[in-house]
Amino acid sequence: MPYTRFESELIVRPDDIDMNNHVHNSKYLDYVLAARYDQMGRCYGMPMDDFLKNGWNWYQKAFHIEFKRALTLADRVIVQTWLDSFEKADVKVGFQIFKKEPRKVAAEGYFISTMIDMKTGRALVIPPEIIEHYTQYTG
User: Residue 69: which domain range?
Assistant: First the structure.
């Protein structure tokens, strides 16, 4: 089932730049996670604080990215994410990172997050009500 794609806008900061004068590849993960944090509250109506109050958190299990074009200092960046699938304690989230002008893909991929119980540090099957809440936003 296709889920709604949500967008967050960021700006490339000086500390994102590597010695090749473009965004260091490790920063792309930061951009995607910052966008998801923003979108959890703004777009889905369930901010990260709600997860933490329930004793839940997310562990980044896997991250796959394909780099298409360089991002440089002060570029405005659009990070688009969407839910792809759920399996037990895992959620797979797709993403694309665009250079705002012109709107061309700079990177794309997916990541898999595992829900964890903060008391035990162990994986926790994602509660059905959480899946239902997040999947009500379909494209």
Answer: 6-135
